[in-house]
Amino acid sequence: MKNFTLLALLLIMSLGYGQVTNEGRPASWRIKGIEKPQAIIMPSFNLDSIQAEDRVRDLDQNKPWRFGYEFLTDNNLQNSGVWHTMPNGDRVWRIRYVSHGAKTLNFLFSDFYMPKGAKVYLYNNDRSDLLGAYDEKQNNESRVLGTWLVSGDDIWIEYFEPAAVAGQGKLEIFKVVHGYRTVTLINPDSNINNSQDCHFDAECFLEGINNIKDISKKSTGLIIVNNSNFCSGTLINNVNNDGTPYFLTANHCYSDPTEWAFLFNWVSPNPVCGGEQQSANNAPNYYLTASGAQLKARKEEPDFMLVEMTSDIPVDWDVVWSGWDRSEVPPPFTYGLHHPSGDIMKLSYDADPPIAEDIEDNGMGYIWVQESIEVGALEPGSSGSGMFDNTGRLIGQAWFIAGNVCNGINTGGLLVGYGRLGVSWDMGETPDTRLKDWLDPDNTGVMTTGWYPSQEFHTLDAKAIFYEHGYNPCGNQVAPVLRLINNGTQNLTSAQISYSFNGADPVIIDWTGNIAENESALIDLPQNATVAGENTLEITVLNPNNGTDEDTSNNSIYESFVTPGSIETSNVVFTITTDIYGEEVSWSLKDTNGNVLYSVAPNSYGDSTTYSQTFMLEEGCYTFTIKDVYGDGICCSQGEGSYSLTTTSGEVIVQGGNYGAQETTTFKMADNLGIADMKEENLTIYPNPSSGLFTIASSQNIDGTAYTIYNMLGQTVKSGSFASGTNTVDLTEVPQGIYLLQASGNGREQTYKLIKE
C-alpha cells in the first residue's frame, strides 16, 4: 500500500459565529475627544524557539502549520477597558491590545452575548482593517466566539450598547493570538496563490459539464477547524429540500464544530488554468463568512463528518445545497472543488470512472479511488471537499492523497482517495455515526436528491472568461483571447462583444458561429498598445442569438495590469539589509528569456548585515524575485530588514521587506549600450565585435580615466586606466561573450558593450 497523506493542512485562521458582513462603522469614530484606554501590552515570548520548531514541523504535512502564539487573558466589560456614555444614554466600551511585531491579532471570546442593537467591532490603530459588526446574530448556546484576523500589532475592540439594553451584554476576552507569520487569508490579496502551479481555478472551463460545475462551486466552502486548521467541504441537501444548513466534510478534520468558521464563494473571476500566473481575487465576496455548527454524525471509516451550521445562510449569498447519489454506481467521470492550502477555490477532474475499494486492514477503507487526475490536483487543505459525479451530485469527500501533487504546471502522479457517501449513509449503527437519519429523516429510501434551491439551466446563457490575457510586462502590446462559453441549452450562434481598453469607448465586435451547450469558442480580440503604468481591459458579451441573456452575472470580465516604464540607465544597484535570519533569503535576476543573470541562494547571507551589488544590464526586460524560506520576509518581526533596487542616480525601482514568502518585480532597461551609439560618446571602440583585442580611442583627453570590465554575472575580469591617445584592451584570455566596460573620469561615468567572438 502506498504512503498516504491526510489532506488536512493545519494553517492558522481565527474563529467566528454567524454571519459577519463588515457593515457600518464603530460609534467612537464619530465621537470627538472620546476617552482612550491605556493599551494592554502583551509580553514578549521566545519567537526564535518557536520558529526553530516550525522549521521542523513544516516539513511534515501531517502536522499543523502554526501561525500564532496564544496569550491567555481575563478582560471583560467590568474589569478592563474604558466606558463612554453618550448624551442619549447609549454607551461605548473600548479596549486596546498591542503585541509588538505581530502581523495579525485575533481573539477568542469565552463569554459572548449581544442584546438587541448591541455590536462589537475590531479594527487596527490606523483603521485600515475593520472587522464587524458582531451582533445578536452571532449569539449561540455555548456563548463562545472567535474572531477573524485583524492586520497589525495594535488592535482595538469596541462594544456598543444601546441605552435600552444597558448592562445586558457580555464580552469576556479569553485569548489573544499573536500572528507571527503570514497566513493565506489575512486579507484577500495577501498570499492568495498559496497552492502549487498545476491547479486550475474553479472558473476554468470544463468541457461538457461547465454549467453543472458552475452550480457545484456555489456549494463548496472553506472551513477553519481547531482554531488553526484548514479543510474544505460541501453544503449538502436533504430529502425534505428545506434548506437545513448541513455541511459534509472529513472526519479527520474533526474539532469542536461550535468553534468552526466557514467561507463561501471565494472564487477567482479571471481564472488561471494550470500555470505560474497569479489568480485574481473576488473581494468583497471573500467576506462571505459564517461560523459555528453542531455535530450531527461522524465515523472514522469512511472518514465522514456531518455538521449543521448554527446560523441560516443569507439568500443574497447565492449558495446552493448539493444533491447526492448514494447508489454506489461508479459514474463515467468525476470532478472536485476545493481549497488546497487554504487557497482560492480550485477545480480537479478525472476523466475515468472512480474505483470502489474496501480496504479494511490499513485504516483507509471504503473509498472511491482516482488513479489519475487529468485536470488540477488536491493538496493538504482539500480535505473533506466533495467528489461530484457527471450530474453534479455529491458521492464522496476527500480523504487522502498519494504521490506528487504537481510536476511544475502539470499534474503529478497523484492518487486520491475519497470516502464513499453510499457507505457513510448507513454503515454506522447509530444516528451519530451515519448520514441517513439526517439527510432522509422520514426514511423514504430515495437513492438521489437534486440541488436546493432547485437549479434550472437557462436557454440563453453566454459566459465570458479570459483564455489568454495577451500581455506580458516586457511587451508594449496587449492582444487578449476571449473564451466564449455556452452555459445555455440552446446552441449559441451569434453575440456582440464589447471591448474597451484603458477606458476608451467600447469597440463592438459582431461574432457568429455555432457553440453547443457546455462547449466554447476562442475569439481573438483587437491588439492595443499599452502605456507605462496601469492598463485596463473590460469585456462584455451582449445579445446572445439576438436575444436577452438570462444570466448576466457571467457576461463581463475585467483585468488591470501594470506595464513598467523604461529606465534610462545601464547599472542597477541592489542593496539588502537582512534580518536576524539572513540565511533564509534568496533572490534571482532573470532576463526576458528566463536566463538567470545574477542570483544568491539560501544560506548565503549573514544575519543583520547589509550587502550591495551592481547589475550591469543591457537594453531589455528583467524580472527580479526575492524569496524567504520561512515565508515572513525580512521585516519586521525579526529585525528591520529591507531591500531596494535603484539606479545609480538614486531612482527607486522597488523597495520593501515585508514580502512574506516572495515578491517579484519586472522592469525595463532603455538602450544605453547600443554599438551604433558608441561613436557619439567620448570613446570610440573598434573592432567590436573582436576576437579579443579592442582599440580604445578618444578625441578628448582621457589620460587617467579609470575603467573596469565586467562579465554578465557582474564579476570583474579586468581593470586599469587609460592613457592619452589610443589604448588597447586585451580580452584574449577570457571566454567568448558580452562584457561591459565602465569608464569613469571628469565626473562622468559611461558604460559600453564589448562583444568577444
Automatic annotation (TrEMBL):
Keywords: Signal. Residues 685-755 form the Secretion system C-terminal sorting domain. It comes from the Bacteria. The keyword Signal applies. InterPro entries: Peptidase_S1_PA, Peptidase_S1_PA_chymotrypsin, Secre_tail. PANTHER family: LYSYL ENDOPEPTIDASE. This is T9SS type A sorting domain-containing protein. It comes from Flavobacterium alkalisoli.
